[in-house]
Structure formats: C-alpha cells, structure tokens
Amino acid sequence: MRHELRQLDDAASVARVGAALLADVISGALASSQRCAVALSGGKTPRAMFPLLAAQPVEWDRVDVFQVDERVAPDGDVERNATHIAAAFAATDVRLHLMGVNEPDLDAACASYAASLPERFDAVHLGIGADGHTASLVPGDPVLTVTDRLVAATLPYQDHRRMTLTYPALSRADVLVWLVAGADKADALGRLIAGDPSIPAGNVDAPISAVLADAASAAGLT
User: Fold this and answer.
1) Is 76 a domain residue?
2) 43, pLDDT greater than 90
C-alpha cells in the first residue's frame, strides 16, 4: 500500500491538520450519501485532535463514530479512549458507538460490536506505537492472526486487556488517516512508510492512506 506522507512542524500541527482532513473526508462522503461512518483511535495526539474535529463545520447528526480500540477499564477512566471522544463530541449530535469493554463476557461484547459495524468506513483514523502497533494490534498478540472476526479481545498490554478492530475490519476503510508524533515513533514510521510487514501497522491496507507526521517522528526519513 502506498502512503501519502505529509510532514508537519509539531504535534499540534498534526492534530490540527488531521482534524481538517477528516472533516473534508466526512463532508465529501455526506455529499453523496445520507450518512457517514468514521472510526477513531486513541492516544495523546488524537486527544488534542478530537475537540478540533468536533468543532469542524460538519453535519454531525448524519455521522456515526465508532471506536478502533478500547482498554478494559471503568467508564470515565482517563485511560479510556471513549472518555475523550465522548467529551469532545458532547455538544454535537453525532451518533457514538462505544465499545462495551465492561460487559461480563468480553468475547460476546466483541461479537456484539462487530454486528454494529458498517459494511464500509468512509475514514479510519490510526496511530502507531514505537513498537509498530496500531489500533490494539500489538506485536506477538494472537489477535494479529484473527481473520474470521471483525472485533477481538487482546492479551494484556500496558496493564490492560483491550478490544480492537481486527485487520478484516480495518480493511473496510476507504481512507486511512494516520497521526504520528514524537521522536520515539521515528523507527516505526520509517517501517510503516516502507510497508514493512514485520510490524502490525505494516499489514493494514486501504485504497487511500494519508500519514501526517511531525518533524520529530519524520526526522529520519529521506
């Protein structure tokens, strides 16, 4: 897959441009369809992007926002992606589809969330970790080999089990928008751009992939 790389000055610029790009994709989708489906990831840079995105002049009452992944943690926990997504979009009429990570049967919750997913996502927002993970597709986790489910639970990673969209679900994206910031992401970003399949992020595929990277993460790129 070919990535369209855009290098920006800093993490704040990545968040700002990411919000504008996603808004453009959403508005374009709504110009030809009654509704638009978007999936959002978590992370520090996206937390800055969410309120900027929610402030964009978009017909949010026609938009469905899904989660790419989520930690198994109490509702309202600062570590939950849903906490930040819900707060950012509280003043809009967007339709949020949050992962039921606190259901007693996590596998059943995964199946339930999978059943709610659209046939296509107009856009999926992703990030990348220093270890090359994206979503909660982490190196060495059995979830990397899941091909028969759209949503699956992971092993514990950084103190939390997680619920994540799998590769088959991410392949439903028409457009991928990657937000990458920080010098610790430089190696992983280089491998992503090179299409290195040895990292989880290198195995995500979509017709269009836009990568927004700050100067620190893109420093080693030629």
Assistant:
1) yes
2) no
Longest dimension (CA), the chain: 49
CA distance 92 to 88: 9
pTM exceeding the 0.90 threshold for the entire prediction: yes
**Domain contains 121:** yes
A 10 A CB-CB count for 195 gives 14
* Residue showing tokens 């990657």: 178
pLDDT computed for residue 1 by the predictor: 78
**pLDDT over 90 at 16, yes or no:** yes
Q: Does a structural domain hold residue 73? A: yes
CATH of the domain at 159: 3.40.50.1360
What total number of domains does the chain contain?
1
Query: What does the DSSP 8-state code read for residue 145?
Result: G
pLDDT, mean of residues 20-31: 98
Cβ–Cβ under 8 Å, residues 177 and 210: yes
Higher pLDDT residue, 158 or 23?
A: 23
pLDDT of 222 reads 64
Residue 17: C-alpha distances to residues 40, 52, 84, 216 (Å): 15, 9, 19, 16
**Contact, 200 vs 138, CB < 8 A?**
yes
> Which range marks the domain in which residue 64 is found?
4-214
**221 within domain boundaries:** no
Kindly write down the DSSP assignment for every residue of 100-126, as one continuous string: -TTSS-HHHHHHHHHHHS-S-BSEEEE
